[in-house]
Amino acid sequence: MTTWRQDDLSVRKCVRHGLSKAHERDSSLSSSSPRGPQHLRVLLVWEVWAAVAAMMRLRRPSSLLWAAALTFMFFLYIALPSSAPPEPCLCGQQQHSLPPNALPKTHPLDKHKLALLIPFRDRFEELLEFAPFIHNFLNKQHKNHHIYVINQVDNLRFNRASLLNVGFLESSVDCDYIAMHDVDLLPLNPEVRYQFPEEGPYHVSAPHLHPRYHYPTFIGGILLVRREHFRHVDGLSNKYWGWGLEDDEFYARLKEAKLEIFRPGNLTSGIKDTFRL
């Protein structure tokens, strides 16, 4: 068993050895990087660690208390934020510009905005299929559009014309033409266009393309109308309850206003593969 005086010399040698090793490591660090707050933190870590190791070797109560105190102060110092000013950011100097051909190509949307008016009641399965389908279909044509689902919630017979009139009023903020669109009619041919009807109403689901109705005066399914033309004929009649006849009456209004109805041509598809009910 050694006494304090016998062990004191070896302890002092241990302390000097630890400090010298710390200075050696510090000198190796300083040779490659400038001195700063981080450099001082590294130096302090080695100094505290050497002192704690020396005190632990003494195995005396007072030395253990000092070792615990130094350890606590060391961790407290590490936990406190540094007061040194942050290093300047060099991000702007390291930025590299991409070549123009590496950027994704985007297409501008149509300057016109289409309002799709969907008269609706109790057709949720069809609506869940229709909404994402027509949205993707129009995006491929770069059409600026908004979908309006006008739901009839009363117990009366379905009034498609009244719902379309309501949709016209609701979409009057920023849409300059409307599509009177059935929720169960999906375009399959990508050549079917929803372009702005510049010259007059444009019947997308023409009689020679619609899978069910083929009479010459038919304008149901999908009809594109400019807002000023819809307002000029005073919209659709609200007196038709139940399915049918409101389209035929609207056809008569368009003809009375001397508005020519245009239909798609030169499509390679027909009544079986242009639309799906």
Number of domains: 2
Percentage beta strand: 5-15%
Percent helix, as a range, is 40-55%
In the CATH scheme, the class of the largest domain would be Alpha Beta
Number of helices: 7
Catalogue the unreliable spans.
Answer: 1-23
The main β sheet shows up as: 5 strands, mixed
Number of strands: 7
* CATH architecture identity of the largest domain: Alpha-Beta Complex
The averaged pLDDT comes out at 80
Task: Give the helices and strands as they follow along the chain.
Answer: HHHEHEHEEEEHHE
Oligomer: single chain
What does this entry look like structurally?
This protein has 277 residues and is α/β, with parallel strands linked by helices. It has helices at residues 4-30, 37-58, 61-79, 124-140, 160-170, 227-232, 246-256, and strands spanning 113-120, 144-151, 177-181, 186-187, 202-203, 222-226, 275-276. Helix 4 (124-140) links the parallel strand 1 and strand 2. It is rod-shaped and about 110 Å long. The chain has two domains: 4-79, no CATH class; 113-276, Spore Coat Polysaccharide Biosynthesis Protein SpsA, Chain A, CATH 3.90.550. The protein contains seven helices and seven strands; from the N terminus they run αααβαβαββββααβ. Mean pLDDT is 80; it is low at 1-23. The strands form two sheets. It has a five-stranded mixed β-sheet with strand order 2-1-3-6-5. Strands 4-7 form a two-stranded antiparallel ribbon. Keywords: Glycoprotein, Glycosyltransferase, Membrane, Signal-anchor, Transferase, Transmembrane, Transmembrane helix. Residues 201-268 form the Galactosyltransferase C-terminal domain. It is a single-pass type II membrane protein.
